[in-house]
Design goal:
Blueprint lengths: L2 H51 L14
Length: 67
């Protein structure tokens, strides 16, 4: 293999390593965001259950005052 070809391959590997690290950072950030959103959904679900127990959410069953 020529020296030029080896240098070319080394450059490609360096770019691929950089891309892999960048993609890993993106995936890691997305995983953290997913965990945060799952926690929010869980808290909202608990809040809905709490509200339904205190009839705050059942106000839609009542007839509005203009009827």
């Amino acid at each position: 293999m020529s020296e030029e070809r080896i240098t070319e391959l080394e450059i490609k590997v360096a770019y691929q390593d950089d891309l892999l690290l960048s993609l890993n950072d993106v995936v890691s950030e997305q995983q953290r965001e997913l965990i945060r959103l799952e926690e929010i959904c869980k808290l909202l679900g608990q809040r809905i259950k709490t509200m339904s127990g205190s009839n705050e959410i059942n106000q839609g069953d009542e007839v509005p005052p203009h009827y």
